[in-house]
Specification:
The protein is of the alpha/beta class and 265 residues long. It has 11 helices and 5 strands; from the N terminus they run αααααβαβααβαβαβα. Strand 1 (120-125), helix 6 and strand 2 (148-149) form a beta-alpha-beta unit.
């Protein structure tokens, strides 16, 4: 199922902002402060706030190139995320720095009830019995420049585990489900799988199965292209790993460079 422009924009807003930052961004838009009273009062679910923000922007004529220009200026390193959503709404591919003056974004001081927005490239769901191979996978993805949410790296003393996992699931551009005979049976992995699948359908979050040992894939996963790491070592493992990193980034392999000569049979 292809995602709609509306779902893509909601996902983008939840990846770029936390609640306070999204309200501050809207306040910085020309005339945007008048829209704030139409949004849910704080504290609010970030997903609900993003959904209501989209509705308010649409109703009041703010879904235009200036909005995407403001996002591009506020997050110049996230153009790869912003530009596809802008194109989906029919706005130019290239968002130039001169298209709109950047709105001031002044975020209120962080309180214990609100923490800075965090974003990851990928969330990894796995069974603890597979932790050795999965930790190797996560480390390699990290070395390839991806920001990885792995529970062993992101959970700290005093954290409420379910809240931290919720943040990782909601704040990741993609999800990896490490498939093994153990993981498909684990209740906790099944819960994370349900969240990842729902976000994949409703928000366009990429869900990538990574098969690390023989197992029967759940039927909703079996229809997807997956990465097969079973028995892979050396160059074969590296090729699969690089393919996975491209998928997380939303990239395609594409054709080889043109050589200027034909490959005749």
């Amino acid at each position: 199922m292809s995602t709609t422009p509306q779902a893509a924009l909601i996902a983008l807003l939840t990846h770029l902002f936390n609640e306070d930052e999204l309200r501050a961004f809207l306040r910085g838009l020309d005339g945007g402060a008048a829209l704030l009273h139409r949004l849910p009062t704080p504290p609010a679910s970030l997903l609900l706030l993003a959904d209501q923000t989209l509705d308010v922007l649409d109703r009041h004529g703010y879904l235009d190139s200036a909005l995407f220009g403001a996002l591009a200026q506020a997050f110049p390193r996230r153009s790869a995320d912003i530009e596809p959503v802008a194109r989906a709404y029919g706005f130019p591919l290239t968002l130039t720095a001169t298209s709109v003056p950047p709105p001031p974004v002044e975020v209120p001081a962080t309180s214990p009830a609100s923490s800075p927005a965090e974003t990851w490239d990928v969330f990894i769901s796995y069974a603890q019995s597979d932790r050795q191979s999965v930790h190797t996978l996560a480390t390699n993805l990290h070395e390839l420049g991806l920001r990885v949410f792995l529970d062993a790296w992101e959970l700290g003393l005093g954290d409420v585990v379910v809240h931290r996992l919720d943040a990782g699931l909601a704040g990741s551009r993609a999800g990896i489900l490490a498939i093994s005979a153990a993981s498909v049976q684990r209740p906790w992995v099944q819960q994370e799988y349900a969240v990842l699948l729902t976000r994949s359908v409703e928000l366009g979050q990429r869900l990538i199965p990574v098969v690390i040992e023989d197992a029967v894939l759940p039927s909703m996963l079996a229809s997807r292209l997956w990465v097969d790491l079973r028995g892979k070592t050396g160059r074969a493992y590296q090729d699969e790993l690089e393919s996975l990193a491209r998928a997380v980034r939303g990239e395609r392999r594409g054709p080889p460079p043109r050589r200027g000569t034909l490959s005749l049979p």
